[in-house]
Design brief:
By secondary structure, the protein is α/β, with parallel strands linked by helices. It folds into 2 domains: about 60 residues, Orthogonal Bundle (Helicase, Ruva Protein, domain 3), CATH 1.10.8; about 190 residues, Rossmann fold, CATH 3.40.50. Helix content is about 40%, strand content about 20%. The chain contains 11 helices and 9 strands. α7 links the parallel β3 and β4. The termini are far apart.
């Protein structure tokens, strides 16, 4: 029965996950082809499909749940994700709450997402503000393919364009809202096996101090932000002062916003 299978799976997954029960529920719902909500409401007596054991085994090998199920909820949308593309984190939603605090319901007209990955930030912004249009930039062909597919699946493709690029080097227009979650992990940092073994290193690591991407980005951001616009840039929890200094050197004023756990997570940048 489903309840017994969930209890057993959660007990085993506790060795590799901080959220073993949630992982088990998501995997069983995936195996059954139903939503987790439906599983919780009506699936206690469901027969457990044979494939569930294989899904649990994959998670026990540290494979991220999002790669196993192929989906990840983010903000108000659900994204398709897979190997080669960073799994969107709830922490990154801090960029969107910061942007909403600035723009409110009216929203920005034009949004830029640098290092778009799965398209999470851009597509969440377009879903939040139905009159906005946006551009996502990434160097990874796998990421761009995932972002375009997500835009099409969510019905946002008419308002979202995705292009290959090296950050904003080739852009010469201004945007009301610039979103960016760059790599910011220092080389040699110890990461959980789920991340280290499966997620793309190019989306994680940024030099010996984790600041290499910011050194490139800050001078570019200064010329991208429209009048009365902002950039919302994700940072590591200990990087606020260092990244704010790089921003100041590029003529930007920074305000730090914290995530739900109270950690520094987003710098909101404006031209000085």
């Amino acid at each position: 029965m489903a309840d017994t299978a969930l209890r057993d799976a959660a007990r085993r997954l506790a060795a590799v996950s901080d959220t073993p029960r949630l992982d088990a529920e998501l995997l069983l719902a995936h195996a059954l082809g139903i939503s987790r909500d439906r599983l919780l409401l009506a699936g206690a007596d469901a027969a457990v499909p044979p494939g569930f054991a294989d899904l649990v085994a994959r998670r026990l090998a540290h494979e991220p749940v999002a790669y196993i199920t192929g989906t990840r909820a983010f903000w108000t949308i659900e994204l398709a994700v897979g190997p080669g593309v960073l799994v969107p984190r709830p922490d990154s939603e801090t960029l969107l709450t910061s942007a909403f605090a600035h723009f409110g319901e009216s929203g920005p007209a034009l949004v830029l997402d640098l290092g778009t990955g799965s398209g999470a930030l851009l597509l969440a912004a377009l879903d939040q503000w139905p009159s906005a249009r946006g551009l996502g930039v990434d160097r990874s062909d796998a990421a761009l393919a995932a972002a375009r597919a997500n835009a099409a699946r969510l019905g946002l493709a008419p308002r979202a364009e995705f292009v290959a690029g090296d950050w904003a080097a080739a852009l010469d227009r201004r945007f009301d809202l610039v979103l960016c979650n760059p790599p910011y992990v220092e080389a040699g940092a110890v990461l959980p096996p789920d991340v280290r073994l499966y997620e793309p290193a190019s989306a994680l690591f940024a030099g010996s101090d984790g600041l290499d991407a910011y050194r490139v980005l800050m001078p570019q951001l200064a010329r991208l932000i429209a009048a009365n616009g902002i950039a919302a840039v994700e940072i590591g929890a200990t990087q606020a002062a260092a990244v704010a200094a790089l921003a100041a050197a590029a003529g930007l004023v920074a305000a730090c916003h914290r995530d739900l756990a109270g950690r520094d997570r987003c710098l909101v940048l404006r031209p000085a």
